[in-house]
């Protein structure tokens, strides 16, 4: 996810996307997603095998369907709504066939090849220090150290860094404004990644200091919680800032924004987990274990 997003920003910075040609952005999204699926398969399978997973094929299928599955179901529903309303937003049959062919002939083979390469080049998981065979009992913790309060804190701070920029992006995508300052948007995106990484690392440190070793999924959920705040902003924008009404506009707005926010959840969750994993390895490698 982060690699694909960076590629999109690189194309925007060199002037590939024109303000009045929004189709170029969607075409670039499909092509870049297809071409980078091999990287996703390699990273997912290699890390899965490092953790001594046995069913790497299921892991590979989950990698390919984790984002595309909900997106495909949402697209089918919204495209059916557009056809029922005889709207121009409905994709023609030929375009749908092209997308399916790209998925079948490009995305899936690259995903499988990347998964095979990741399985064959697997290495043992390098623990930074000696580990025990049985997990340590976690002591009782106060309520504010549970998952939901930490997700609220971890999501609000990165969201506050992009709050101002969100209005202009929404006005460009769902309104009549034109957004062309991609350099500022790229800087804001980098700030978002940095803030997400630092906040997740800080929360992971406090979690470990409280003798709670189950930080793996917590770091992912805390990092990705910004996507939930963005979707909450969608509710505010729809009712307070936009002029949209009717079933079709409402379904399109909340349907596609749900997919985008879900993508941000996966992207920022990955950033938070990777940052926490690097941090934990660093601090425990610095400890002299007997």
TrEMBL record:
Matching InterPro entries: EMP70
Keyword Flavoprotein attached: no
GO terms under biological process: protein localization to membrane
Pfam family, one: EMP70
Keywords: Endosome, Golgi apparatus, Membrane, Signal, Transmembrane, Transmembrane helix
Keyword Chaperone assigned: no
GO cellular component terms, semicolon-separated: endosome membrane; Golgi membrane
Annotated localization: Endosome membrane; Golgi apparatus membrane
Membrane topology, record value: Multi-pass membrane protein
Matching PANTHER family: TRANSMEMBRANE 9 SUPERFAMILY MEMBER 2 (PTHR10766:SF14), TRANSMEMBRANE 9 SUPERFAMILY PROTEIN (PTHR10766)
Family to which the UniProt record says this protein belongs: Belongs to the nonaspanin (TM9SF) (TC 9.A.2) family.
Name of the protein in its database record: Transmembrane 9 superfamily member
Annotated organism of origin: Gossypium raimondii (Peruvian cotton)
Origin organism lineage: Eukaryota, Viridiplantae, Streptophyta, Embryophyta, Tracheophyta
């Amino acid at each position: 996810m982060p690699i694909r997003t960076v590629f999109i920003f690189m194309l925007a910075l060199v002037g590939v996307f024109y303000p009045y040609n929004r189709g170029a952005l969607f075409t670039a999204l499909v092509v870049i997603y297809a071409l980078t699926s091999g990287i996703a398969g390699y990273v997912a399978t290699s890390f899965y095998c490092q953790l001594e997973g046995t069913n790497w094929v299921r892991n590979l299928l989950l990698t390919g369907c984790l984002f595309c599955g909900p997106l495909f179901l949402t697209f089918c529903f919204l495209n059916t709504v557009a056809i029922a309303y005889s709207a121009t937003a409905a994709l023609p049959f030929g375009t749908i066939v092209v997308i399916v062919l790209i998925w079948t002939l490009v995305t899936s083979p690259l995903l499988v090849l990347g998964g095979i390469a990741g399985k064959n080049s697997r290495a043992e998981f390098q623990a930074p220090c000696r580990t025990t065979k049985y997990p340590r009992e976690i002591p009782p913790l106060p309520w504010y150290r549970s998952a939901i309060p930490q997700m609220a804190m971890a999501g609000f701070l990165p969201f506050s860094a992009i709050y101002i920029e969100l209005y202009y992006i929404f006005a460009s995508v769902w309104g009549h404004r034109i957004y062309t300052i991609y350099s500022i948007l790229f800087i804001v995106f980098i700030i978002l990644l940095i803030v997400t990484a630092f906040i997740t690392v800080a929360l992971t440190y406090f979690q470990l200091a409280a003798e709670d070793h189950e930080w793996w999924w917590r770091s992912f959920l805390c990092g990705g919680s910004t996507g939930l705040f963005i979707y909450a902003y969608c509710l505010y924008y729809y009712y307070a800032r936009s002029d949209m009404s009717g079933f079709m506009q409402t379904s399109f707005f909340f349907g596609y924004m749900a997919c985008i926010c879900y993508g941000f959840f996966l992207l920022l969750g990955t950033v938070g987990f990777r940052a926490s994993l690097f941090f934990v390895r660093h601090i425990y490698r610095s400890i002299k274990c007997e």
